[in-house]
Structure formats: C-alpha cells, structure tokens
Amino acid sequence: GQQLNQSPQSMFIQEGEDVSMNCTSSSIFNTWLWYKQDPGEGPVLLIALYKAGELTSNGRLTAQFGITRKDSFLNISASIPSDVGIYFCAGLNYGGSQGNLIFGKGTKLSVKP
Amino acid sequence: NAGVTQTPKFRVLKTGQSMTLLCAQDMNHEYMYWYRQDPGMGLRLIHYSVGEGTTAKGEVPDGYNVSRLKKQNFLLGLESAAPSQTSVYFCASTPRAGNGYTFGSGTRLTVV
Fold it and tell me: What pLDDT does A3 receive?
C-alpha cells in the first residue's frame, strides 16, 4: 500500500530553536494534513493543505504542500516546552481506498527548557 | 459538544477473552475509523465505515470485527484476545472524504 516517509523520527532541541520536519511519498496526494499528539491523548489537527504549493500558517507553525504533490513540510518557530509531543503527517488521495488518510510514523519532539 | 468519545479508557484482558470497544461521535459524521498505535509503527487502520450499516477492512483487520448499527456509534470487537493485540486504540470520524479526522482520546488495551 501507500506509505509516507516522515523524518526525522525524533528531535531533541533547546527552547527557542526552530524545528523542521517533512514527509515524502512515492504517490501523489490531494490533501496533506499535520497532526500533533500529546502524551496520553489522540492526535489533534494542526494544519490542513489542499493545493499544491500552498503555504499555510497557524501561529508559530507553518506548513507547505509540495509542488510535486508528493511531499510536505512543517516548521515550528521559537519552540516552547508545550510543543513537546509526536507530530504526524497524513496524506489523502481521492483515488485511494474510500478517501482514507495515510499516516506517517511520526516525529517525536522533545524541548529542553 | 463531546466530539469523539471512546470507552473504556483502559482495559486489561487475559488471552482468549473477548471485549468490545465503543466509539461514539455527536457531530453527525458519516465516516468513522478504528486505528491501532504501536511504538514505531504510527497509526494503522483496522476497519472503517463510510456510513450507517457499512463496514470495510483496513490495513490490519485480522482478529477484529466491527459494527455500525447506528450512525453515531462504531464498535470494535476482539473475539479472542491475543498478546499481539496489546496496543492503544483510537477512533476517528470525519463528515466526508477529504476532511481531516477528529480523534478520540484512545483506549489502552493490555492482553496478558
């Protein structure tokens, strides 16, 4: 089946640093989504991208839908301790099985105060 | 507005026992999903439903059954639990294909 390659697997950064993570796929997607999962909770949607080339911000978060439609990245500026968690990318291809999301394996972010 | 509610939150089963996980959503969403999350494996789709009375297999359906008798509820059943089914289970819903999913807070299941 379709797979997303998400990198890095984990990051240890200092508070105040910027963070960048990305997802790539061998398949084209129509939609890219970025989720954050806090410990003991379900994933929560951060940003949704619907057009190739689209750049969208949500506070200190910025995400882009790659021009080739096979990749997306998420940047977090000036990280703070509450940014700790696992970040998942997810792609959607309407030509796939009933429009189900395909998830990356996650990037675990740790922030040192 | 509760969103997606999963019960129970925690459960310990003995090998061979059966149980049902309940997912309830109050957003009138058509699509519902069951995922399992294991360390290093991300979220893997078990079964899903595109409407009341319909179900379909996902990536890892073996050992699980589901039912969607009412639009707001999606049940995940384990007929004979195995240690390999120790995992965190998440339910999600969405109004239509192409929208992001709303997730529940998960059920942590341990099979001993």
Answer: 76
Mean predicted lDDT score pLDDT of chain A: 91
Q: Each residue of A49-88: pLDDT tens digit?
A: 999 999 999 999 999 999 999 999 999 999 999 999 999 9
A residues 78-97 near B, CB within 8 Å? 88, 90, 92, 94, 97
Q: Which residues of A touch B101 (CB under 8 A)?
A: 43, 45, 101
Using alpha carbons, select from A104, A112, A86 the residue that is nearest to residue A3.
Answer: A104
Mean pLDDT within B85-89: 97
Q: Name the nearest CA neighbour of B25 among B50, B3, B53.
A: B3
How many Å apart are CA B71 and CA A87, to the nearest integer?
A: 30
| Cβ of residue A31 closer than 8 Å to a chain B Cβ | yes
> How far apart (Å, rounded) are the C-alpha atoms in residues B103 and B40?
19
Of A40, A43, A98, the CB nearest to B97: A98
